[in-house]
Amino acid sequence: MRYYIIAGEASGDLHGSNLIKALRERDTDAEIRCWGGDKMQAAGATVVKHYRDLAFMGFTEVLKHLGTILNNIAFCKKDILEYKPDAIIFIDYPGFNMRIAEWAKKQGFRTIYYISPTVWAWKENRVKKIKRDVDLMMVILPFEADFYRKNWQYEVVYVGHPLIEVIEAEKTKPAQPLSRDKPIIAVLPGSRKQEIVTKLPVMMALVKDYPQYRFVIAKAPSLPDELYTGIIGDKDVLLVKDQTYNVLKQAKAALVTSGTATLETALFGVPQVVCYRAEPISFWIAKKIVKVKYISLVNLIMDKPVVTELIQNELDEKNLEAELDKILHEGPELQQMKKDYAMLWDKLGSKSASAEAANAIMNLMGQ
To answer: What is the pTM of this model?
Structure first.
């Protein structure tokens, strides 16, 4: 069968690549065309748009690039019509994917969504469109199935979190040493330019205060080195590419931007401080419409403050240093975080999300 997959971010590229492998195991004749990245291409898909050209973050950024976004939507529709897939699989990236799903359903295509939009956090009315436009919704967070069922009488498939299989496999591999003389503080400042520019300077301000540690930045593969080196300056900091998990396997603590990276860090058992800062206008708008207690996936899944979140004006050098000190030294905060990390694993379960998702897709397609 022919599959058209749309992923617009680095995390979507990772999970899309594993889904592609699982689909190919069950459908040896599968032909796959996609929007994604290097990992999806390595898994055997033909990439027509790279996610590095798609990642616009925040309300004002979207407005600035509206023309590009509209052109991408038009190109996507044209490409789908020419390719004539048996199914279209949307991975997260809701601002774009929901538009395409509505159009695709009207065109008669089979529509499948893997990794639900965060409708439990904001834009809950999107569920009406999901029920109308999506033939199969596969969710990855334990509470999402109950949300859809109880609030919207919509049956979805909980497949487990795709990071479980990824990190379990990664833990079996030996670490490639990055620092032989000093323990490592991992720095994960995000995958978008806007995130790096707003958060990395604050993170780098701490380097001078921790000469006994090696700060290692896990660089986003789609961004140029110059973006980082201009902020790092002459500080003794190591910048590495495509080694996020290798860094986390060796880290004593981590400074992490919000998003998937917070969950990855927790699953590797690394104590962390979550750092978040957006453009003031974007943050003001978000506060008005987003209805969640936390910004990190770890805290959202556990429904309690497992890790400290420094948000907006709270993210300054003084606060960040104070919170980093707490997790670098054995104490009640660190002990509790370790206990909560163990509970997080139990809560997420041991399903292989890619295999479960591929099975659900095959069932829908009658295979």
So the answer is: 0.83
